[in-house]
Design brief:
Two copies of one chain form a homodimer. Chain A is mainly alpha-helical and about 200 residues long. Chain A has one domain: Hypothetical protein af1432. In chain A, a hairpin with a 6-residue loop joins β1 and β2. Chain A is globular and about 60 Å long. The termini of chain A are far apart. Chains A, B: It comes from Zestomonas insulae. Chains A, B: This is HD domain-containing protein. Chains A, B: Pfam families: HD_3. Chains A, B: InterPro entries: HD_domain, YfbR/HDDC2. Chains A, B: Keywords: Hydrolase, Metal-binding.
Amino acid sequence: MERDDLSQQLLFLREIDRLKGVVRQSPLLDRSRKENSAEHSWHLAMYAWLLSAYAAEQVNAGRVIQMLLLHDVVEIDVGDTPLHSGGSHAEQSALETQAAARLFGLLPDAQRDDFMALWLEFEHAESADAQFAKALDRFQPLLVNVFTGGGTWVESGVSYEQVIQRYGPAIRNGAPRLWAICEQWLAQHFAERGGSTPN
Amino acid sequence: MERDDLSQQLLFLREIDRLKGVVRQSPLLDRSRKENSAEHSWHLAMYAWLLSAYAAEQVNAGRVIQMLLLHDVVEIDVGDTPLHSGGSHAEQSALETQAAARLFGLLPDAQRDDFMALWLEFEHAESADAQFAKALDRFQPLLVNVFTGGGTWVESGVSYEQVIQRYGPAIRNGAPRLWAICEQWLAQHFAERGGSTPN
């Protein structure tokens, strides 16, 4: 590990400070402001640590933590894409891959390759670890919405059916027992809100 | 893992959302605002991941990451203690231990015990992992100060000798090669600032 490697690593660590300025749609639980992607990543890593027993298959919690610490770094270049925004998935995906190449490209080659491989594994949900990480990345904002009386669902006029459709597949796939509980919360939440309610 | 465990885990995950509201002395690198302890913890975990080769002894990077994700959670109850604040270390330490007992006590027993043990290992710098984690917890704010033209050192009128004294022991102990580079930065930084300069 040479001095040049360290210069590259510090440049990357300096650059990713900007993730603290990427603002998400979800609020903090006290509703004082919107959450940023850096603190969101920290929170998700804590979810992974505590909840790994709920993964669909056995996972390596340490890898899931790393995946989640890393998963949003591309937003430094492309911003956060709200779940309820619509938009072209393919176009977004191409931009994020470009961002990953630029950002991870700041690192020494071996770490660049490790980061890129782990990020792609997450993006493509190619493993049990990635599928669990993806599940948590949906589970946490769902919880925020439940805990804040609807949050972004109310703001964006999202219906029960849309919530099921947008959060369900990833959570059911990666953490089926967590999804079973989500279904109960959602039924109750939308029943209380009235409007489009489940059967 | 029973439903009751999950209720406790979710209560904890909900409670630690408040770490996003604990504001530190250090600014973001773009100086737009002060950093909070949740995003700081995320950033430190990335430091640990990338820089583990600079640890004084071989470390388990995954454990160091977990330690750093967890290390500031007690600030939810006691707030951030600025490095340049003075104040009684023993009193602060007692308050933090109380906070750890309350917060980790929200978790199922086994996880409570794991978290407490890891947090105490960090607090007491009892292992190579903890010593490296402690080093990074000083190294990151030092970098922020260097990158922002003095930051909290200028605000608090901190001298070269005080910086050496407050940051040096932890960084030198846990990551001696990083400290060697810090010494070069500090000499240059304080020479440019004038006033109290190194020899």
